[in-house]
Each structure stands twice: as C-alpha cells, then as structure tokens.
C-alpha cells in the first residue's frame, strides 16, 4: 500500500469484528511504528496490550474510574448499573486495547518533545495497521488522568503519563471519507 494512499484512506474504526489480530502482526505494526521521529533517540513509548481475559481487569478499572470521577453515578443506581454493564460489554467486544504511556520528564520542553514523538508513533501504528487491514481508534479519555486508575494498572502517577489508549481490531465497517478542508484555509505563506 502506498503511504499517501494509507494517509488519505485510513479511518478511525469504532466497530470491530470479534476476532483477535495475530500477535506477530501486532508486533510488526508496533515495530514499524517505532520508526517515528524520536528526540535524542529515546523511543520513550511503552505499550500495555490488553486482550482476551487480560481485558477484564483493565475494563473493571475503567468502570471504577468512571464512578470516581463522576461520569457514572456512585453509589450505583439501576440506571448506572445498566450503563456500566453496557459500556463493559462494548469494551469487551473490542479485541485489543493498547495503552501507550511514557515516563514524565521535569523539563517542560523535553516533555513536549517526548509527547510529540509518541503521537508520531501512534499515527505510524495506525497507518501500518491499515496496511494489514487492521483498524484503530486513538482515544483520549478521562480515566487516563485518574491517579487511582494509573496505580491500578501498575504505573506510578508521579512517574508515568498515559498518552492514549488505542482500540484495535479488524473493522466491522469502515466509515466513509468525509474529506478535509482545503489546505489554503489553513496555510499562511510568508515570503518577506
């Protein structure tokens, strides 16, 4: 697949087939993703990949976080219990959840450089995945900032930053191309 074709035709996938992506393909996707630009060649991205039964405790912690941060009423009423059950079932149907994280740096400039590099890693992963017919959804969610959630997944809130959680699997359906705004509306050329 041509890189320009992949960039233009890749879509964020929200509905996945209920089959796992083979581990060797996942490793290839993340291997190629690691060719992202990395300041000082730190390659600071780390991945926790949740699948099969490993998703259960991860999703349980997400639901607990939603209660702590107020996205779901606590103590649980009947409506909240149904909401948690529905969200849990939805998340369990996604074959893989890849939590991308890195070590925090005290220097704000270096922190931004590392974060930018990790975003390039994530985009590379999405493009390579598309080559293999694998879809991803790059998510940024409130539980990523919940210190108790971070501890529950064996990370340290003062030491680690969760950059994203990627939902991964073979697409059940592919959204249509919505096009993009003409670049002339975004591009300012300054020659003098």
- Ends: how far apart? 40 Å
CATH homologous superfamily caption: NADH Oxidase
CATH architecture: 3-Layer(aba) Sandwich
Number of helices: 6
What is the average per-residue confidence, as pLDDT, rounded to a whole number? 95
Secondary structure: helix percent: 40-55%
**Gross geometry:** globular
CATH topology: NADH Oxidase
Going across the major beta sheet, what is the strand order? 1-2-4-3
The total tally of domains equals 1
InterPro entries: NAD(P)H_nitroreductase, Nitroreductase, Nitroreductase-like
Pfam families: Nitroreductase (PF00881)
Protein name: Nitroreductase family protein
Domain Nitroreductase: 7-170
Give a quick precis of the structure.
The protein has helices spanning 3-9, 23-33, 54-68, 78-93, 108-131, 147-152; strands at 46-51, 96-103, 135-139, 160-169.
Care to describe what's here?
The chain has helices spanning 3-9, 23-33, 54-68, 78-93, 108-131, 147-152; strands at residues 46-51, 96-103, 135-139, 160-169. It has a four-stranded antiparallel β-sheet. It is an alpha+beta fold.
Search tags:
single chain, 192 residues, alpha+beta, NADH Oxidase, four-stranded antiparallel beta sheet, 6 helices, 15% strand, globular
Protein topology:
Layout: H1 3-9, H2 23-33, E1 46-51, H3 54-68, H4 78-93, E2 96-103, H5 108-131, E3 135-139, H6 147-152, E4 160-169
Antiparallel strand pairs: 1-2, 2-4, 3-4
Helix pairs in contact: 2-5, 3-4
